[in-house]
Each structure stands twice: as structure tokens, then as C-alpha cells.
Amino acid sequence: MPSQCRKRAAPYGESLAEPSDATGWFPAWLLLRHRGLAHLFRADEIPDAGTAARVFRHLLALLPLESQGLSDTLIAGRRTLRQLCPAFFRSYMEVVARRGLSSRGP
Fold first, then answer.
1. Can you say whether the dihedral through the CA atoms of 4, 59, 82, 93 is positive or negative?
2. What letter would DSSP give residue 105?
3. Within 13 A of 62's CA, how many CA atoms are on the CB side?
4. What is the pLDDT of residues 25-41, one digit of tens each?
């Protein structure tokens, strides 16, 4: 697991103990908590600048799928997120469970 990925399950405020690392994760953290912002970005606009950027790019495609209910595409997307950063994936699933996003139908 990439070292910069290990502490992403913690709330963003707690990760500020490592400001050089934390700033790169802020876009993904914010998008996860405010998924309505996803429409402001296109994945091809986000440079491939490390794990945090790859997670952010992936969230742009994954978050809209959550409101459509469980599907093979959603499960595959979650699996990819878990491979990118297991700690962020845990945080992601906690947020999804709290919101009950997957329980909503089309």
C-alpha cells in the first residue's frame, strides 16, 4: 500500500498533521463528502499526479454510480478504488453507508 494512502480513513482535519501530504488528498476528501461537485470536473482535466489524483479521478466516475443502485459497474469501480488506496476505500464505504447511497433506486 502506498505510504501516502495509509491515513486516509481519518477525517481530513486529523490528517493535517502532515500538511505536505494532506493537501494532495483534499480534492478527493471534499468530493467524497460533497458529491454534487463531481459535475464541475472531467477526469481528463485531472493530471495523473500520484495516488491522490488517481483516486480523485476515479471518484468522478464512481460517485454518480452510487445513486443508481448496486450494479456490476459499481462493484468493479469500488474494487478499483480499493486497489488504488485501501484506507481511502474504507473511508469511502463509511460515507456511502452513512448516506445509504446504494439503497436508492434509479
1. positive
2. -
3. 22
4. 889 989 998 988 988 99
Residue reference for cell 434509479? 106
Contact 55, 84 (CB under 8 A): yes
Confidence of residue 13 (pLDDT cuts 50, 70, 90): low
Polymer length of the chain = 106
Q: Which sign, positive or negative, has the C-alpha torsion 98, 103, 105, 106?
A: positive
> In this structure, what are the phi and psi dihedrals at residue 70, rounded to the nearest 5 degrees?
-65, 135
Q: Where are the alpha helices (DSSP H) in the chain?
A: 12-15, 19-33, 51-66, 72-84, 86-99
pTM: 0.75
Name the CA dihedral angle for 88, 97, 65, 81, rounded to a multiple of 10 degrees.
Answer: 20
State how far the Cα of 8 lies from the Cα of 11, in Å rounded to an integer: 8
